[in-house]
Amino acid sequence: xxHKSAIKVINIEQVSAKVLQLHFNVEWTMDDINxxxxxxxxxxxxxxxxxxxxADLYCLRLKYRxxxxxxxxxxxxxxxxxxxxxxxxxxxLQAVKExxx
Length: 101
Hints:
The chain has 101 residues and is of the alpha+beta class. It has a single domain, classed as Gyrase A, domain 2, CATH 3.30.1360. It is built from two helices and six strands; from the N terminus they run ββαββββα. The radius of gyration is 12 Å and the shape is globular.
């Protein structure tokens, strides 16, 4: 995995009003999640609140401004997505999309 400064979000797909799918310029595995998630946190100036990790799923609850979002990684499908915790967080998700684009 390249250094986190080399990681870039190359595509953001709006899956629904509450979900953004993220695509990166690098392939990642579960071993790389810390670098990838740290890149997202730094890009957004967001705060890590909680991490839940399973065998193939990693979920990071983060605070961006006043919004709380989930940053999810699923290894088998190589999927990474951000999702809202509540309806009130939809505005935060849209702000994140603009920052990461």
